[in-house]
């Protein structure tokens, strides 16, 4: 397992340098504040939040660099709601729907979640409800084989609602207790596709009352402010109970998560930290903020680059 | 696309137009707003800073400040700088001599395989023989996905054999293309979460082996500030000849589009605007700049219409309209033409001032485009040819049958017929107007 710590080590933070400079001088001056502004923007933190943080920094100037750093860390950590999901406390059977735009990493996330569920003592079943993408179901089926987890898949071009209905029935028939549904990627701005998602939910609830118990959005860490719009639109159609940030092992810093937490109150439950089936870690707010502010190693200053 | 940036910029311009004379101060204030709009649209910080510096220089010249329409002068300067930022003039792939290699690179989920299929479809329709080569040995079912897409767009595909390396798979494809006389070979390479030494080594090998004329980065348009870093790293390690931006049909803020050319010097060759194989468009920097500034892209719209409706059809339609012989058969043709032009909300975006339409209007249009058009089509197809030619003959019993046949309610059939009669009446009125106005220039 790549692990949270190892992945974060790769999360290069330009911010680290700026804070270090501020420390050396005994407090953030105007140049440092600007350097921090650039670095925060470079981490895809929204311009509104950056403005607020910069104001805080100016206010805290008298408290020195440590005080300034703590002030920023406080604001950022407070923006992220605490994840409340727990495999042990979740109902049996339960259904978890993974939604998101194309290429956000839904299929891989579903596979990794199946692994996490099994590790938590659950008996998972995967549903490949991506009937749109060519070979979408095959991709999940291959994962399922690798994980030795049963899978219910539809044909390409088939009806996704029928697949989830069958999958919910299979949960009962095969005595499983955690249904993980991989849905087709859809652009959040395409109304008809979003309606299809509603239909899929209804079909699921018909066979498994109360389902989906969880609906999580997969968000690519490399996205910019558009990730906020994605979460907002999906939340409107299928109330989201959580988010999974994927591909966080790249150099992207996913600063948009703060805005999503603040505006929509959606907690980040897991972080994808690598390509292997085990590379999914429970999201750690403190570690995430710390990595963003302190970083490790050489900061490649692409935010200003 | 670019909605947020577009409406922010137009707000700035409205303010500027209010001034009879501009001072340096007005310009500075306006440019600060523009800079903010750019940053909020995920434009790279340095790119935004340089852009503002150039516009400031252009605007503070005597020519602008002393102009009688200084606001418009600034809009023009910003337009020119935007065009420059987006790459200047339109550029395309190098497709000769045959077989021309096109190597697609990119991170996971950027849309490489979908883009490969879209490009294959475009070129095969131009009469080229295209071979799609799967060079992704890692992702589960990647080869199956490419084969299925190749079959869907009607081109040939070739995959790796057991034991092949990535470069080996590429070499096999190139060999096949030479032997069997293909015009273009599209290599679909594997993605990674990030550009790591493994990936670079693998791509180097593949690149050296197949020596493609085009090495193209496929990048998700919604990528944040990371876009520039990714593009630069690929450019430095493998050497790019261009980029394709995907998923520009969402509400991507356009930061990537505005930053990557400045960061790499490579042109944007195409943009992906939807999931279907035909949703791939050439990238015209001047038209995109005009769209960002709220001037619309009427040329692009006309071109789209031209590909969806052929000229003979249009002429025949015009004659029918003149004689008022337009019936439901013609309506069906029109409907299908509109469907061929792609989702309605994409078309609306090309109209001048589109970004000022309220969101609910746009959502409404979006809802119209899919199921409603399909339902209308179903109703029309449930009619007999005679009923389509003579809609006035549709009585209650026929209406009920049509509703049953199309899975709709009789009220839906009625609504369609009413709408059709209304448009007929309108056309009649136009015809009369036409007669009255004959000989007068508009």
* Count of beta strands of chain B: 8
Helix content of chain A: 40-55%
Mean pLDDT of chain A: 84
Give the N-terminus to C-terminus distance of chain B in angstroms. Answer: 34 Å
Based on CA inertia axes, which overall geometry of chain A fits? elongated
Order of helices and strands of chain A: HHHHHEHEHEHEHEHEHEEH
Strand content of chain B: 5-15%
User: Which chains have the largest interface?
Assistant: A-B, 55 and 55 residues
Strand content of chain A: 5-15%
Task: Outline the structure in words.
- The complex is a heterodimer of chains A (305) and B (442).
- Chain A has 305 residues and is α/β, with parallel strands linked by helices.
- Chain A is 49% helix and 13% strand.
- Chain A has an 8-stranded mixed sheet with strand order 3-2-4-1-5-6-7-8, sandwiched between helices.
- In chain A, helix 2 runs antiparallel to helix 3, helix 3 runs antiparallel to helix 4 and helix 8 runs parallel beside helix 9.
- The two termini of chain A are 32 Å apart.
- Chain B is of the alpha/beta class and 442 residues long.
- Chain B folds into 3 domains: 83 residues, SRP54, nucleotide-binding domain (Four Helix Bundle (Hemerythrin (Met), subunit A)); 196 residues, 3-Layer(aba) Sandwich (Rossmann fold), CATH 3.40.50; 139 residues, 434 Repressor (Amino-terminal Domain) (Orthogonal Bundle), CATH 1.10.260.
- Chain B contains 20 helices and 8 strands.
- An 8-stranded mixed sheet of chain B has the order 3-2-4-1-5-6-7-8, sandwiched between helices.
- In chain B, strand 7 and strand 8 form a beta hairpin.
- The C terminus of chain B is likely disordered.
């Amino acid at each position: 397992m790549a692990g949270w710590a190892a992945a974060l080590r790769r999360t290069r933070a330009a911010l680290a340098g700026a804070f270090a400079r501020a420390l050396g001088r005994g407090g953030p001056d105007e140049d440092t504040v600007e350097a921090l502004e650039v670095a925060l923007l470079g981490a895809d933190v929204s311009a509104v939040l950056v403005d607020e943080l910069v104001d805080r920094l100016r206010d805290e100037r008298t408290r020195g660099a440590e005080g300034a750093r703590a002030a920023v860390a406080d604001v950022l950590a407070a923006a992220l709601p605490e994840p409340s999901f727990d495999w042990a406390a979740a109902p049996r059977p339960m259904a978890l729907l993974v939604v998101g735009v194309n290429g956000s990493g839904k299929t891989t996330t579903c596979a990794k979640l199946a692994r996490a569920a099994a590790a938590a003592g659950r008996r998972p079943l995967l549903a490949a409800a991506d009937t749109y993408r060519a070979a979408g179901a095959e991709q999940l089926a291959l994962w399922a084989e690798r994980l030795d987890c049963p899978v219910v898949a539809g044909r390409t071009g088939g009806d996704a609602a029928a697949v989830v209905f069958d999958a919910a029935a299979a949960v009962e028939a095969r005595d499983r207790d955690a249904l993980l549904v991989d849905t087709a990627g859809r652009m959040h701005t395409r109304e008809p596709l979003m309606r299809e998602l509603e239909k899929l939910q209804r079909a699921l609830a018909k066979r498994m009352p109360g389902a989906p118990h969880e609906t999580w959005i997969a968000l690519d860490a490399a996205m910019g402010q558009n990730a906020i719009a994605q979460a907002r639109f999906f939340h409107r159609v299928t109330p989201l109970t959580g988010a999974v940030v994927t591909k966080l092992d790249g150099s992207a810093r996913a600063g948009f998560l703060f805005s999503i937490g603040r505006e929509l109150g959606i907690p980040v439950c897991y972080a994808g930290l690598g390509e292997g089936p085990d590379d999914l870690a429970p999201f750690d707010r403190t570690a995430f903020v710390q990595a963003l502010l302190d970083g490790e190693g050489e900061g490649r200053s692409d935010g200003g680059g | 696309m670019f909605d947020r940036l577009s409406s922010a910029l137009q707000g700035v311009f409205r303010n500027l137009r209010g001034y009879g004379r501009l001072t340096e101060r007005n310009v500075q204030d306006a440019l600060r707003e523009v800079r903010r709009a750019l940053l909020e649209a995920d434009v790279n910080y340095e790119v935004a800073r340089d852009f503002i510096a150039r516009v400031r220089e252009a605007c503070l010249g005597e020519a602008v400040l002393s102009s009688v329409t200084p606001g418009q002068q600034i809009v023009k300067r910003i337009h020119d700088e935007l065009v420059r930022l987006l790459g200047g003039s339109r550029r395309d792939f190098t497709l000769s001599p045959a077989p021309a290699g096109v190597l697609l690179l990119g991170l996971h989920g950027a849309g490489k395989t979908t883009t490969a299929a879209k490009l294959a479809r475009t070129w095969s329709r131009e009469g080229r023989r295209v071979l799609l080569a799967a060079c992704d040995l890692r992702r589960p079912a990647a080869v199956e996905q490419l084969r299925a897409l190749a079959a869907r767009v009607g081109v040939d595909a070739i995959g790796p054999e057991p034991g092949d390396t990535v470069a080996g798979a590429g070499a096999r494809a190139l060999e096949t293309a030479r032997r069997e006389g293909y015009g273009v070979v599209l290599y679909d390479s594997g993605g990674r979460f990030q550009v790591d030494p493994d990936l670079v080594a693998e791509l180097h090998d593949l690149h050296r082996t197949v020596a493609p004329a085009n090495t193209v980065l496929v990048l998700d348009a919604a990528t944040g500030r990371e876009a520039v870093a990714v593009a630069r790293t690929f450019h430095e390690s493998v050497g790019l000849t261009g980029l394709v931006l995907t998923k520009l049909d969402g509400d991507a803020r356009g930061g990537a589009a505005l930053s990557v050319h400045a960061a790499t010097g490579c042109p944007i060759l195409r943009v992906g605007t939807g999931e279907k194989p035909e949703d791939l468009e050439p990238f015209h920097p001047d038209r995109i700049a005009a769209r960002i500034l709220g001037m619309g892209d009427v040329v692009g719209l006309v071109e789209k219409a031209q590909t969806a409706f052929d000229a003979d059809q249009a002429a025949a339609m015009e004659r029918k309209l003149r004689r008022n012989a337009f019936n439901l058969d013609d309506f069906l043709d029109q409907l299908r033409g509109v469907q061929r032009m792609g989702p309605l909300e994409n078309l609306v975006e090309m109209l001048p001032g589109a970004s000022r339409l309220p969101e609910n209007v746009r959502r409404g249009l979006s809802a119209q485009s899919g199921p409603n058009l399909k339902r209308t089509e179903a109703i029309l197809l449930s009619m007999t040819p005679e009923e389509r030619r003579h809609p006035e003959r549709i009585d209650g019993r026929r209406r009920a049958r049509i509703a049953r046949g199309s899975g709709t309610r009789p009220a839906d059939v009625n609504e369609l017929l009413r709408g059709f009669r209304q448009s007929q009446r309108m056309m009649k009125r136009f015809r009369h107007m036409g007669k009255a106005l004959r000989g007068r220039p508009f």
